[in-house]
DNA sequence: GGCCTTTCTGCAACTGGTTGCATAAACCCG
DNA sequence: CGGGTTTATGCAACCAGTTGCAGAAAGGCC
């Protein structure tokens, strides 16, 4: 639902082609909104049909790149959407379903899954902290920089939460196993 | 993706009909996995075809209720699934896209949206804390209770995070406005 | 008993996102 | 310069979840 607007934002930051967008989605915006290249191409086509973006003159490069830039109508639409009040999507986490399943069908191998999750969250947290140190440790705090920092902080907070939660969950599951005499 | 297993879990806790499941999803499991009644009916049908659940003899009540119970194959499948290692779904949050949009197109009405979100998260947090006080303040900590508590704690942690983040975000956005002379 | 409402079940169509595959241009290397 | 590789674009089918609507059985009301 926010893909078109994420694309408009990225293209406003800097006009570029589909594949470049895919690359930039993997970083920055992609921390909170992922998109495959197929989604991106499909959506770019639609945005062009809507008159929100236009293709720029094709420049040389690998393959046949088509860069896009945002038209005034697109910028206007982005402003409209950003100012709207939206219902937040409720949380949805498979791990919680699995924990409840564990509660009914007794001990399973769930701990291993949580351990691997823990590692992933720790990695991501380390990455975010590194970015924070590199990009936000010093320099003038403009509005834009502050907002980008805010988004990164959300990432840091969320990953910290999951690291904490995984540790706590492992604690509960392992203590249970120990209590049952499984060393 | 976890809907079938969420249903199996719920049906193992207590066999019941589609509409009852919908009601129970609104509470408990529904804090982390939502499903509409259409999804539930469709899925129950599929689970029956797979031989994981069976319909019980129809009992009286509103409409024509069909209660289901889990068969051994279903329990086995749930165990298998719970023990599997899954990739966690990456975070996806529209608000972050909107904050980045704000960063590019200058001040918008985004604060209002965040304020309404803040209220929602506070409400949910209060609800979760109330449930915690009611259900987990005392009593023997069995494995099942501990796991249910753990899931609830995840909810509390997440809602706390969002309350904190909304406050922080409002701080940034409002400070910016003030700096621009808009009182 | 007839009628309106509520509860429960379900179909059909749609949407956003994913997967698998195809094609074309540039580039790289022997 | 010709064949393999990489990069860029895209189609088609699919899957999970959502929306809108409809019919059937039970309950309540007059």
UniProtKB/TrEMBL annotation, chains A, B:
GO molecular function: DNA binding
Boundaries of every Transcription regulator PadR C-terminal domain copy: 91-173
Coiled coil: none
Keywords, in A-Z order: DNA-binding
Domain Transcription regulator PadR N-terminal intervals: 7-79
One Pfam family recorded for the sequence: PadR
Keyword Thylakoid: no
Domain of life: Bacteria
Protein name: DNA-binding PadR family transcriptional regulator
Species for this entry: Nitrospirillum iridis
């Amino acid at each position: 639902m926010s893909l078109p607007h994420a694309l408009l934002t990225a293209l406003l930051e800097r006009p570029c082609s589909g594949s470049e967008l895919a690359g930039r989605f993997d970083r920055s915006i992609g921390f909170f909104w992922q998109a495959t290249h197929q989604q991106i191409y499909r959506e770019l086509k639609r945005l062009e049909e809507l008159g929100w973006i236009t293709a720029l003159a094709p420049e040389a490069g690998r393959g046949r790149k088509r860069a896009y830039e945002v038209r005034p109508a697109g910028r206007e639409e982005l402003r409209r959407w950003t100012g709207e009040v939206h219902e937040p999507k409720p949380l949805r986490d498979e791990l919680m379903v699995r924990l409840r399943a564990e509660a009914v069908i007794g001990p399973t191998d769930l701990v291993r899954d949580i351990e691997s999750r823990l590692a992933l969250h720790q990695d991501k947290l380390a990455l975010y902290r590194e970015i924070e140190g590199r990009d936000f440790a010093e320099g003038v705090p403009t509005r834009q920089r502050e907002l980008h920092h805010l988004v990164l902080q959300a990432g840091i907070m969320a990953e910290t939460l999951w690291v904490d939660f995984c540790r706590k969950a492992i604690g509960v599951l392992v203590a249970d196993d120990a209590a049952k005499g499984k060393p």
